[in-house]
Amino acid sequence: MKKISIFGATGSIGRNTIDLIRRAPGAYDVVALSGGRNIEQLAADAREFRADVAVTAFPELLEDLRAALAGSDVEAAAGPQAIAEAANRPADWVMSAIVGAAGLVPGLEAVKQGATLALANKESLVCAGGLLLRTAKAHNARILPVDSEHSAIFQALIGEDMSEVERIIITASGGAFRDWPLDQLREATVAEASSHPNWDMGQRITIDSASMFNKALEVIEAKEFFGVSPSQIEVLVHPQSIVHALVGFRDGAVMSHLGAPDMRHAIGFALHWPERRDLPVERLDLAAIQQLSFATPDPARYPALGLAWDVMNRGGLTGAVFNGAKERVLDHFIAERIGFVDMARVVAQTLAWADGQAGLLDQTMTLEAVLHVDHLARQETDRVVAAGVA
Ligand code: NDP
Ligand code: MG
Asked: Across the 390 residues of the chain, what is the mean pLDDT of every consecutive 10-residue run?
């Protein structure tokens, strides 16, 4: 039996992973499940799969979790340290699906014990790509991308030589405001930004899709994961979300991956890799879809996207600043302290501030340095917001 753990089990990616596990009774031995505030769901899944341990990120919820697990053999634990310890328990396959930089440490712990890491948590590659990849290599652990675009690129590269890759093209749906008049974006509400035209995902990534901060993170994720240069990455708006990514080769050939917008494709691919198995996803009917369209993203509509190239070209620990600042502006937007269009402006200001701090971005990429820079970036973002967005 394959021993598996799922971090962020109660979220959108976590639920989809559990759906696949549930369809294969007896195939998986669940070691650890982690969640946040959804204690009821976490406990129900931990009981169903007889996990060794269930961990909530929040220490104040430990008693609730214990109560919900009473009478079962599942151990209850709480807090970031307990999540890290659970990730260090031997497992063959670990799903990293916590949202935000909180997913970094459990991912590092999982690769340290040699597990195959199925990586949905793009933030860990954005804020500490070099560190995560280096740690995985040192422990002979494999990382498989779960972000749909990166899974698509990975699949298009099977059997290919990276030195023959000319470019990588990542598609973007364009999000909730793709067709809005530009001057209305200023008024966009949290509820409006939280609905995605094609994908059913967690609230934070859905809002990041509307702003294209999500695509900016994915561009950086692609650079880190596939080791290409920033100038080799392109983004195309593709409203149907059927073509997930394309890879162009030196002879002009382009290979792409198509599929219905269902995360169980990418999760299942990572779960069964290097084999392919049956997956309960809708089969494509291109005749019914009729048209696939593509367009260049408008920088005036998606100012966040261009920041990805500033981050990659500056290098060093800039990704940690970008991600930390992005997480905070999203908190401030959700709390209605800033408007939708303010998010990219504040992140750009925080990036400029960090670049002006002598030596800050050029330290060696250790976990301590990443966490420190992340903390400073959040503080600076809060300061800019409190001072009133210019
Ligand atoms: P969700 O918000 O749906 O789920 C997040 C998970 O993390 C939940 O289990 C949540 O617990 C838990 N969590 C929240 N805060 C913390 C914390 N501080 N520490 C530890 N755990 C926490 O997110 P998604 O599933 O949408 O996304 C997860 C990751 O996958 C993100 O990095 C996202 O970018 C990436 N991703 C998601 C895709 C999707 O289709 N959803 C597609 C591609 C990538 P609880 O809910 O119990 O509070
Ligand atoms: Mg994606």
From this structure: 98 98 97 98 98 98 98 98 98 98 98 98 98 98 98 98 98 96 97 92 96 98 98 98 98 97 97 98 97 98 98 98 98 98 98 97 98 98 90
List CB contacts of 179: < 8 A, sequence separation 6 or more: none
For 315-387, give the CATH class.
mainly alpha
DSSP-derived pairing of the beta strands 243-249 and 165-172: antiparallel
Question: What distance in Å separates the CA atoms of residue 381 and residue 347, rounded to the nearest whole number?
Answer: 7
- Choose which residue among 205, 214, 217, 220 to substitute to test ligand 1 binding: the one with the highest number of ligand atoms within 8 A of its C-beta: 205
Taking the domains of the chain in order of start, what are their residue ranges? 2-145, 150-261, 315-387
Q: How far is the CA of 102 from the centre of ligand 1 (A)?
A: 10
Q: Which residues pair with 235 in a beta bridge?
A: 170
Please tell me the CATH superfamily of domain 2-145, with its number: NAD(P)-binding Rossmann-like Domain (3.40.50.720)
Q: How far is the CA of 149 from the centre of ligand 2 (A)?
A: 5
d(C-alpha 1, C-alpha 297), whole Å: 45
57 lines ligand 1 (CB under 6 A): yes
Q: Whole-prediction pTM value?
A: 0.98
Cα(13) to centroid of ligand 1, in Å? 7
